[in-house]
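User: What would this chain look like folded?
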Amino acid sequence: MRGIEEIWLALEIGNSRLHWALFIRETLYSAWDTDHFPEHLIQQLAECQTLDHLLLAISPPHQKIRVENTSSSPPPLVIASVVPSQTAIWQTYPNTHVITLDKIPLKGVYTTLGIDRALALWGAGKTWGFPMLVIDAGTALTFTAADANECLVGGAILPGLGLQFASLGQQTGQLPLVETRNFASLPPRFALTTIEAIQSGVIYTLIAGIKDFVEAWWNLFPNGKIAIKGGDRILLLNYLQALHPEITAPLIVEPNLIFWGIGEIVMGNK
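Assistant: Here's the prediction, encoded as structure tokens.
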């Protein structure tokens, strides 16, 4: 990928948040998340004169990112986005490179496959080997898999943990809004309160679904690997550990799979 220098930034524009990574050549130096930025702030970032100035503007308040840099200009920005309206705005930043599906060497992809799913699968497979199944426990819960020939096997998409709770709270007249941060342990399966009944229904069926997909994957590829990412990964892993520890043990837990995929694309095309 032309224009990529020693220090460069990667940005995954997700449905809920912005996911950032700072690379020094092929090494992932730091990663962090922020809320989406308003358009006027994105336009201001294009005017940042130094790397320190830029990092100060995009770092979360509790995590100031600093790195030694001799360049007097902001670094290249490599973008992978699932929000087209945001992609256009971010291209006002100078020296921007947008990764599209055709840039990923994964075989057998269909045209509407999400760039986030493809990059995470490519990053996981190139790091730990194929066959690979990636579970993304984000806003949507997705399963995406490729075989030993780096060819897409397929996958599935369903509402994630928070989205399922939100839909019940927002689309019904009587049910309360339940937030995932309000509980960390498994609820009673047969509940005696409305909130615990919602927790039980969503969590136990979600975990059963994950278990079913994992077992189906191992039936197809007994030596296949599985990696999990996403904001709800720790919560779901805790539930899986309590209910199905035999499934949890071999899982590769890595929140930065998309950045591994971006790094593979960038370094492979230098």
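The chain is about 35% helix and 20% strand. If you want, I can go into more detail on any region.
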